Amino acid sequence: MLERELIVSNKLGLHARATAKLVQTLSGFAANATLVAKGREVNAKSIMGVMLLAAGQGTPVTVRVDGADEAQALAAVVELFERNFDEA
């Protein structure tokens, strides 16, 4: 299992479009993925689960991945966060 803490830095936080990009990114990997924020832990491959976190800008989020391609999955998530979910 790998994990990394990231900060939600895009202006609107993990809103619907950003959440959909996250779920879509992770759907290509076999590894299980979990997001932890604000005392909640959710399946990172579930749009509804991620939306329930209500993680706004500046929220620290821990990403945990576990499985055969966990390193690649984590790298893809880190890249997505670093690109601010492709938002301006």
From TrEMBL:
Keywords: Cytoplasm, Phosphotransferase system. SUPFAM superfamilies: HPr-like. GO terms for cellular component: cytoplasm. GO terms for biological process: phosphoenolpyruvate-dependent sugar phosphotransferase system. It is found in: Cytoplasm. NCBIfam families: PTS_HPr_family. Belongs to the HPr family. PANTHER family: PHOSPHOCARRIER PROTEIN HPR, PHOSPHOCARRIER PROTEIN NPR. This is HPr family phosphocarrier protein. It comes from Stenotrophomonas koreensis.
